[in-house]
Specification:
Pathway: Amine and polyamine biosynthesis; ectoine biosynthesis; L-ectoine from L-aspartate 4-semialdehyde: step 1/3. It is an enzyme of class 2 (transferase). It comes from Brevibacterium salitolerans. Keywords: Aminotransferase, Pyridoxal phosphate, Transferase. The chain is an alpha/beta fold. The chain has 2 domains: 3-53 and 317-426, Aspartate Aminotransferase, domain 1, CATH 3.90.1150.10; 61-312, 3-Layer(aba) Sandwich (Aspartate Aminotransferase, domain 2). It has 15 helices and 17 strands. The chain has helices at 3-7, 15-18, 44-47, 56-66, 80-94, 110-125, 142-146, 151-155, 181-188, 216-228, 299-312, 317-338, 360-371, 396-413, 419-426, and strands spanning 23-27, 30-33, 38-41, 102-104, 130-133, 164-167, 199-202, 205-206, 212-213, 232-236, 260-263, 276-279, 343-348, 351-356, 374-375, 377-379, 385-388. It has a 7-stranded mixed beta sheet. It has a 4-stranded mixed beta sheet with strand order 1-2-3-15. Strand 1 (23-27) and strand 2 form a beta hairpin. The longest helix has 22 residues, at 317-338. The relative contact order is 0.15.
């Protein structure tokens, strides 16, 4: 019955190899397979479903809109759905945070917003070079790949990826070097051979790179360096944004204001394709139609995005509720990591990970979790991290149950800690 997937679909498919079930229903934090097996989904569409599957908050207005005869596809033309989204985004998200950004709809996906950000930075500054970070991931189109660190994904480009350089992410050298000291020096040295970049692009939490979370002070140092040297700071908030770290934007904790922000994945709330590129008004030097995209006017996504903001971000009650789940997730992950040899915790907020010194363990643990009804993926350059992205709307009971499955999978696959590791953990 499922043979068509193997005979017709491209070999490029990936998630269906790790999770071979055919999923037929989904609600909240649960997906149901054709054979009736239920799976807790701590993958959440790679972060595109922060509010869970088929949330009634979105489905009811979406169904009403689809049945109303209103415009579905509109390019960048004016529609009531677009107007209401812009008004709501400004009043509920931007204004309360003191953020003065223009909003651009670059196309439907995360790589679209990154491409727009890179193009705008080069156009505005007149410089070509972009700096990005070790282990970064920013998308699969050529511009986004040029600022991505993963060698396997970069090799898929088939051509040289130029006009960008990689610099060390926070704690890349385990704290053995002063942050940005070398970069500051080469930018100030006319003999360094390093051209001033148009921008530096950063994820505050690197998802595909191994759930690495940058410290707030490191992000502040990066923002200050960019300010001093007239370099634009781009924050790629495609996966870490929309509440994933506990605040709507992942950079809020650091108290910085990026020049350009990339949003996608959960900005529509429902999983419908939508992306935004936000930037300071003075950067808005586009000519009409200079950057466009056929599907940048996705009105059903505007409807669900508006519903998400009104339901979850009209005040701070959802954020406060989220704080308790974050505490539960992080404390449970610490306990699970302490139960295994060579394991440690990564991430921030509801963006969690467990890293294993033996890289092969992560994949085996994810497979064991799947066999017992939990969807989690792996990430990192060697797939050495078990990565968790539970829906932000997950109940505490579901969160505990999913973490119980993960703990059992770790216990079944990973070796117990040595006496020295156990002593260090209890110290």
């Amino acid at each position: 019955m499922t043979e068509i997937y193997y005979t017709l679909e491209s070999e490029v498919r990936s998630y269906s190899r790790s999770w071979p079930a055919e999923f037929v229903k989904a609600s909240g934090a649960t997906q149901t397979a054709a054979d009736g097996t239920e799976y807790l989904d701590f993958f959440a569409g790679a972060g595109a479903l922060n509010y869970g599957h088929n949330n009634p908050v979105f489905m009811e207005p979406l169904i009403a809109y689809l049945q109303s005869g209103q415009v579905l596809h509109s390019m960048d033309m004016k529609t009531p759905a677009k107007r209401k989204f812009l008004e709501t985004f400004k009043s509920r998200i931007l204004d309360p945070r003191g953020l003065n950004y223009k909003v651009m709809f670059p196309g439907p996906t995360g790589t679209n917003t990154v491409e727009a950000a890179l193009k705008l930075a080069r156009k505005y500054t007149g410089r070509q070079h972009i700096l990005s970070f070790t282990n970064a991931f920013h998308g699969m189109t050529l511009g986004s790949l040029s600022v991505t660190g993963n060698s396997m994904k970069r090799e898929g480009a088939g051509i040289p990826l130029t006009n960008s350089s990689k610099i060390p992410y926070d704690d890349y050298f385990d704290g053995e070097t002063a942050d940005f000291l070398w970069l500051e020096r080469v930018l100030e040295d006319s003999g360094s051979g390093v051209d001033k970049p148009a921008a530096i692009i950063v994820e505050t939490v690197q998802g595909e790179g191994g759930v690495r979370a940058a410290r707030a002070e490191w992000l502040r140092g990066l923002a200050e360096l960019c300010r001093r040297h007239d370099i634009l700071l781009i924050v790629d908030d495609v996966q870490a944004g929309c509440g994933r770290t506990g605040t709507f934007f992942s950079f809020e904790e650091a108290g910085i204001v990026p020049d350009i922000v990339c949003l996608s994945k959960s900005i529509s709330g429902s999983g419908l394709p939508l992306a935004l590129t936000l930037f300071r008004p003075e950067l808005d030097i586009w000519s009409p139609g200079e950057h466009n995209g056929t599907f940048r006017g996705n009105n059903p996504a505007f409807v669900t995005a508006t519903a998400a903001i009104e339901e979850f971000w009209a005040d701070d009650s959802f954020q406060q509720e989220l704080a308790g789940k974050i505490e539960l997730l992080q404390s449970r992950l610490e306990r699970i990591a302490f139960s295994a040899s060579g394991a440690g915790v990564r991430g921030r907020g509801m963006f969690g990970g467990i890293i294993f010194e033996d890289a092969e363990l992560a994949g085996k643990i994810a497979a064991e979790a799947y066999r017992n009804g939990l969807l989690v993926e792996t990430s990192g350059p060697k797939d050495e991290v078990v990565k968790l992205l539970p829906p932000l709307t997950v109940t505490r009971e579901e969160l505990d149950r999913g973490l119980d499955i993960l703990a059992a999978a770790v216990a079944a696959v990973a070796p117990a800690p040595t006496a020295a590791e156990a002593a260090a953990a209890s110290a």
